[in-house]
Amino acid sequence: MSKLYFRYGAMNSGKSTALLQVAHNFEERDQAVLLVKPAIDTKGNRQVVSRLGVSREVDVLLNKTDSLRQAVTDALSTRDRGLAPVTAVLIDEAQFLTPHQVDEALEVAIFEEIPVLAYGIRTDFQTRSFAGSQRLMEIAHTLEEMKTICRCGRKAIFNARVGDSGRIKEGAQVMIDGEHARYEALCAKCFLSD
Amino acid sequence: MSKLYFRYGAMNSGKSTALLQVAHNFEERDQAVLLVKPAIDTKGNRQVVSRLGVSREVDVLLNKTDSLRQAVTDALSTRDRGLAPVTAVLIDEAQFLTPHQVDEALEVAIFEEIPVLAYGIRTDFQTRSFAGSQRLMEIAHTLEEMKTICRCGRKAIFNARVGDSGRIKEGAQVMIDGEHARYEALCAKCFLSD
Amino acid sequence: MSKLYFRYGAMNSGKSTALLQVAHNFEERDQAVLLVKPAIDTKGNRQVVSRLGVSREVDVLLNKTDSLRQAVTDALSTRDRGLAPVTAVLIDEAQFLTPHQVDEALEVAIFEEIPVLAYGIRTDFQTRSFAGSQRLMEIAHTLEEMKTICRCGRKAIFNARVGDSGRIKEGAQVMIDGEHARYEALCAKCFLSD
Amino acid sequence: MSKLYFRYGAMNSGKSTALLQVAHNFEERDQAVLLVKPAIDTKGNRQVVSRLGVSREVDVLLNKTDSLRQAVTDALSTRDRGLAPVTAVLIDEAQFLTPHQVDEALEVAIFEEIPVLAYGIRTDFQTRSFAGSQRLMEIAHTLEEMKTICRCGRKAIFNARVGDSGRIKEGAQVMIDGEHARYEALCAKCFLSD
């Protein structure tokens, strides 16, 4: 049976690089993947952008009211993907999926028999989960951490929002990196002590 | 630095056995543990009960308004625990902690430098997280799955509620095992197909 | 496809308890397990003994020249196990398997479609692997660590041999716990500094 | 305490990409890394080469008689690395380390307090470990699998050697990819059935 994986990590832990590597691994074996990204993330628009310098256009930009299962079914039936069938669905910025889309991701895995690998961050700048990451934490078959480090050397697990005048602790949940603020992945101690 | 661990698993995955084994491991090395259980679980009252036949009384039965950090501090300062200091906090049925108590568990780990090992289930009979497990999923340093199997042989990840007349899909989130219903750990496919 | 799992840990990390819990989990779901132990371990003879106080007789005591695959096949065909087919093979003290028996364990998993869960220690008192654990490390589908702690509080990964006059650093690889020496699980730092 | 990590995976599982991403993660936080590669791998000479298209020169090309600990100490004391101290050692193709160099890697972690992340393959084309990977499997604090897929869709765990006339089952342990043969990562079933 195929599975729904949630590979979660703090900001800048290398999630997009890992996703692009997995896409490459499948395609080297002549197996096609379907790259999906929720539309809310305006960083790079239709691109999955790795900080290592690699990028790639997604196949499906998913709006909040779109059906993930339909998008997968459409890709299976109508798109010309050469000889290779879609053998995996890879989702970037999966924290921005709706809970319903996460439920669909599970259905794709268990009823369509296509593994779904969702990459995303666990929590926002106030340590609260996003709607998509909460649902993924609830129902994914496997939770796998993508590790990165804090400035102090410990494992970073939280995402601090930092503006021109320093740490920002109040505000909207979603503020894309680089627009009016940036993010710094911190360990719990640095996050709570700052 | 000490960490907050969430060891989650479906019903009957052996969480209480694992907790009692860890307590034993610490005590064999002359290190004391503090056993904590939220008061909501009336099964066994003050006992951690393993289905293998081992049981043990908890040190702290925690009500919803109790402070976990205070309970740990009290244990460190006032209880006569012989020569051994408390070197770990073990929490059974951790899904029933309040979010605030989970925040305190993180504080105990990073500010008191005492590791906290929380054992609990991830989701209820409708695949929704409990208040405690949601918060643990958000802020625990490490998420570790306790595996068990479905009747079909696959890994069980969900908890079905079953009454005398079969599967129950609506009702209160908390209904203690054995009182008016029992639980069966199922894989996603059996859970959704049933 | 079924898998070969190697769940390894230092001495006294709770491997036998975990194995007995897994056996219980299968049997609660009316699925039979086959308990196997290499004959070299004279501790408890035919018993799997948990330090928590639970024990159970093994189904197969395997000599070095015995075929694991044959033992499994025999169990499948000739033993009266009631209605329940063998759905998992559980191996205690798996470090004492021969490399050939480990190869057979992999064959049982992939050709007989029966998962094999092997529990054992990784290395001897000189940090060298046993023949069985080396082979398991090479070919198991999944390596899962059973954690325990050192006297200093860190994770223990090595097994020190201790006699009446202190640490023993030379000698035969196999000396059963309690006969002429005992073992203490230590972290790398305590092990190398002592 | 710092740790020795062995991140192992089959050929083409993305180990070099992951290593380069980790280097990037450290350096973004103004923490320097020391990149090490055993000299035996002639692929790319002094380069760590990722199949995603990213590459980078190593800091230390380690011969079999070289001391890893000395190389790290030299880097700490004499190299002008600007203001950033070396905060991690990253080793590519770690299966080619000598057992002694792996012992030194553990010493660097526990006595120099610098984490060592070793990336390498677990076994050769005959499912036997390399000298370096065997020792890493014995003493690393943490074993982490880098997953990739077989042509059949299952998880690949073995490395088949393939020549112009098909599968090669006998020969020297080391034959660098692309020179006289190539490698294909396979699952256990495809590997053993072929």
Kindly describe this structure:
The structure is a homotetramer of 194-residue chains. Chain A has 194 residues and is an alpha/beta fold. Chain A is 27% helix and 27% strand. In chain A, the strands form 3 sheets. A 6-stranded parallel beta sheet of chain A has the order 5-2-6-7-1-8, sandwiched between helices. In chain A, helix 3 packs parallel to helix 4 (131-139). The longest helix of chain A is centred in the first third of the chain and has 14 residues, at 15-28. The termini of chain A are far apart. The model of chain A has no long low-confidence stretch (mean pLDDT 92).
List keywords for this structure.
homotetramer, 194 residues, alpha/beta, 6-stranded parallel β-sheet, 3-stranded antiparallel β-sheet, 5 helices, 11 strands
Short description:
Four copies of one chain form a homotetramer. Chain A is an alpha/beta fold and 194 residues long.
Largest interface: which pair? A-B, 28 and 28 residues
Given as residue ranges, the uncertain stretches of chain A (5+ residues, pLDDT < 50) are none
Mean pLDDT of chain A: 92
- The Cα radius of gyration of chain A reads 17 Å
Separate helix tally of chain A: 5
Strand order of the largest sheet of chain A: 5-2-6-7-1-8
Number of strands of chain A: 11
